[in-house]
Amino acid sequence: MGQRNRLQYIILGLLNQRPQTGYDLAKAFENEIGEFWQAQHSQIYPMLKRLETAGEITHEDTIAGEKLAKKQYSLTPAGHEKLVAWVSEPSPELAATKDEFILKLYFIKSADDPRLQPMLQEQAVLHRTQLAHLKQRRQTVFPDQTAIDQAYGHYLILDHAIGREQYYVDWLNQLLER
Fold first, then answer.
1. What is the pLDDT of residues 14-29, one digit of tens each?
2. Spatial distance between the Cα atoms of 52 and 56, rounded to a whole number of angstroms
3. pLDDT, tens digit, for every residue of 19-57?
4. pTM to 2 decimals?
């Protein structure tokens, strides 16, 4: 199943949380969803149109400010059924990660390669920054057990992302110490 096909389920899931505009949906990819899935405006808006044509979402025109009309999208019962069925399906595939740094490392032939240390240092800074960001998001989004209980799956994903980044930072630090 391609990324575009999965985008429909992400949109259905986000709309299952609450009605949202296309802009709101796009912003979701800048925070939590963006930690593990990417989508551009150019993918989101055509998908909204397809989901609406299929009867899985609907929209209501709202006015923001004096004249700005916005489409507020909501999940239909058919969209909810589709989302529930998808979440219930097994996920038997392991997805390959597209990490350009790891790809470049593959082509480094020697520990003495002068490009290696700067690459490792750059990645260490990036991953330390990402780790700090994720830990801050966890404090902000899940300040107490009640917040965790209300969005447990989201909490698990954030916890997984923190563990992944912590491993990456530790691994890079070990390489830099050699």
1. 999 999 999 999 998 8
2. 6
3. 999 999 999 888 777 777 888 889 999 999 999 999 999
4. 0.72
Q: In sequence order, what DSSP letters do the residues of 142-176 get, joined into one string?
A: -SSHHHHHHTHHHHHHHHHHHHHHHHHHHHHHHHH
* DSSP string covering 46-114: HHHHHHHHTTSEEEEEEEETTTEEEEEEEE-HHHHHHHHHHHHS---PPPPP--HHHHHHHT---TT-T
Q: Coil, strand, or helix at residue 20?
A: strand
User: In 31-47, which positions are buried (b, 16+ CB within 10 angstroms) versus exposed (e)?
Assistant: ebbebeeebeeebbeeb
Is 155 within 8 Å of 56 (Cβ atoms)? no
Task: Label residue 105 exposed, middle or buried (CB < 10 Å: 0-12, 13-18, 19+).
Answer: middle
Alpha-carbon gap, residue 25 to 92, rounded angstroms: 27
Tokens standing for residue 153: 């799956």
Average pLDDT of the chain is 90
The whole-angstrom separation of Cα 104 and Cα 116 is 10
